[in-house]
Amino acid sequence: MSVATSTHPNACPALVLNADYRPLSYYPLSLWSWQDSVKAVFLNRVNIVSSYDVIVRSPSVELELPSVVSLKDYIKPPEWPAFTRFNLFLRDRFTCQYCGSKENLTFDHLVPKSLGGKTTWKNVITACSSCNLIKSNRLFKEAGMHPNQWPYKPNVNELHKNGKLFPPNYLHDSWLDFLYWDVELEA
């Protein structure tokens, strides 16, 4: 396919909405490359909700690149997110739970692995590397360090809510009706 404008197609990602017109994910924002969105259109898997003023052409087809697509089939979101480093940081709002720093984040086991602690939602918190080194392999009480928030197992809605606190640097105008970003961080 060739492009019929000076805007490069790689600068035209498509916001992907579920069949209920909600984003599949807020953080990271559910986006597809122009190639994936065009492929989904031709496979009849999505509806085009909005388009860019960028046209791609093949010998037999001309199409405005989709800027927003909705899935034709509803994907039921999982109730409980997987335990991953990214999801842990998102739960804790990318903030050290000991000192409040947002730099050099790692994760810390409240009950250290060396003392039998498990890598689970209820035993792991976000910590900056400095606090993690200070605490070392001791219990948080022994180190005189108390987390600002106790670890817990979040549901997907809580992670979506936290994800809304971190809007991406780029939001196309056609996406704004489907995204609801908080203006200020909640305390």
List the helices and strands and how they pair.
Blueprint: E1 2-3, E2 14-17, E3 31-32, H1 34-42, E4 46-57, E5 62-71, H2 85-91, E6 105-109, E7 124-128, H3 129-135, H4 156-163
Parallel strand pairs: 2-5
Antiparallel strand pairs: 1-4, 2-3, 4-5, 6-7
Beta-strand residue percentage: 15-25%
**Can you tell me the overall shape?**
elongated
Q: What structural class results from the helix and strand content?
A: alpha+beta
Roughly what percent helix? 10-25%
Number of strands: 7
Q: Helix count, per DSSP?
A: 4
The Cα radius of gyration reads 21 Å
Written account of the structure:
This protein is of the alpha+beta class. Helices cover 17% and strands 21% of the residues. It is built from four helices and seven strands; from the N terminus they run βββαββαββαα. The strands form two sheets. Strands 1-4-5-2-3 form a five-stranded mixed beta sheet. A two-stranded antiparallel ribbon has the order 6-7. A hairpin with a 4-residue loop joins β4 and β5. The protein is elongated, with a radius of gyration of 21 Å. The relative contact order is 0.16.
